[in-house]
Amino acid sequence: MDQERNMKFMQIAMKHIQEGRAFLDEKGIELDMHDLQPALDMLMQVMNEAYEMGYEEGKNE
């Protein structure tokens, strides 16, 4: 995985972290940063796969 791209993805995720935290709080789900790490890792994988899919589609057009 591209380290620079991952940093950009992390910046995007951090822009929306408060919205995610509010959603979890509303549902009564308590998570600390240690608990969030696996979710962030999965989010990074999803974002990388989406990037690759868009990249391949863009090359084919």
UniProtKB/TrEMBL annotation:
Pfam families: ComZ (PF10815). It comes from Salibacterium salarium. This is Competence protein ComG. It comes from the Bacteria.
